[in-house]
Structure to design on (341 residues):
């Protein structure tokens, strides 16, 4: 069965663009024509999924995310909703707050209400349990985070590579004591971004002829764990600034913690770019503040559209092998990493 992802690949566009073409969204005429031509050549019929869905038990899909206040998940949710709208499906949004018990409660509700399927951004790599849904044959797609041991389709970004690229950028900009504020232990996105930071900083220290025995100790001294929220970012940044040899730059593993880190810097009379700041996750105001904020831009909307597309394919009866789609990030270099004075 031809899927929305097959059409996107053939047309050289994102699944989100395909969704917009068939959902009446704004797309350039040239791209729309490429999508329609690819759909015709592949025999893709957008209404076929809708017809199949009418035979299912439910007309609702669930979306379980850990933090609706995070703009990343807000955009992801919009992508899921736009894709689901093509087939007249409704989306029930469930905010787990990163709490395993709350997440489990919402997954139980999905089963009890016989939803057509669920998209899940897991609260924990190790503790999120999708087994009840899988046992009952409910279609499930993991988005942004893949729970350990879950045999489901997944849509991810290469967080580790992006973290390494971000750290290498700070090194190349001239910063020498680069810290990392990462998210909670056990959350795959936080762990992967931290692994990228570790690799990038370790290579930079070795290139400066820092003894191998000292490298890990130096790297660890500049790592702080937080909660992916503004308050956690503020506390972690304040703690780093209190070190005897404080950092001169920070890589922050999500956008909300970046807000808290910037607040702490302002309270200490520090500011970019003399103190470098790089945020994982773009925000609408990143280019408007002064100095403008360097970010790792995440394809949040496309993550949602792609995850919903995979889920709709499963609901419609696709029996192909499990699929993992990895989307690209982009480093948006702005003024906050221009280099120390």
């Amino acid at each position: 069965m031809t899927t929305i992802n097959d059409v996107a690949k053939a047309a050289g566009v994102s699944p989100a663009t395909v969704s917009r073409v068939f959902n009446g969204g704004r797309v350039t005429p040239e791209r729309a024509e490429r999508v329609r031509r690819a759909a015709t050549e592949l025999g893709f019929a957008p209404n076929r999924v809708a017809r199949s869905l009418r035979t299912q038990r439910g007309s609702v899909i669930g979306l379980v995310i850990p933090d609706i206040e995070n703009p990343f998940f807000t955009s992801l949710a919009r992508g899921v909703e736009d894709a689901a709208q093509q087939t007249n499906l409704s989306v029930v949004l469930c905010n787990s707050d990163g709490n395993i018990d709350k997440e489990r409660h919402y997954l139980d509700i999905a089963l009890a209400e016989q939803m057509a399927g669920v998209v899940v951004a897991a609260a924990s790599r190790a503790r999120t349990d999708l087994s009840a849904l899988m046992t009952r044959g409910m279609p499930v797609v993991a988005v942004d985070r893949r729970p350990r041991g879950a045999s489901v389709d997944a849509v991810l970004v290469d967080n580790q590579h992006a973290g390494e690229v971000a750290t290498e950028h700070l090194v190349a900009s001239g910063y020498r004591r680069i810290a990392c504020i990462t998210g909670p232990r056990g959350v795959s996105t936080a762990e992967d971004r931290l692994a990228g930071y570790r690799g990038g900083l370790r290579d930079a220290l070795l290139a400066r002829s820092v003894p191998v025995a000292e490298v890990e100790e130096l790297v660890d001294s500049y790592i702080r764990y937080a909660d992916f929220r503004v308050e956690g970012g503020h506390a972690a940044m304040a703690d780093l600034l209190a070190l005897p040899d404080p950092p001169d730059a920070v890589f922050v593993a999500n956008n909300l913690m970046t807000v808290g880190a910037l607040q702490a810097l302002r309270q200490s009379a520090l500011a970019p770019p003399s103190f470098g700041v790089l945020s994982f996750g773009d925000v609408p105001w990143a280019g408007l503040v002064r100095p403008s904020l360097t970010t790792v831009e995440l394809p949040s909307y496309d993550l949602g559209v792609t995850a919903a597309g995979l889920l709709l394919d499963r609901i419609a009866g696709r029996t192909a092998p499990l699929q993992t789609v990895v989307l690209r990030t982009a480093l948006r270099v702005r003024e906050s990493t221009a280099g120390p004075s």
Notes: The chain has three domains: 1-44, 55-158+299-329, 159-298+332-337.
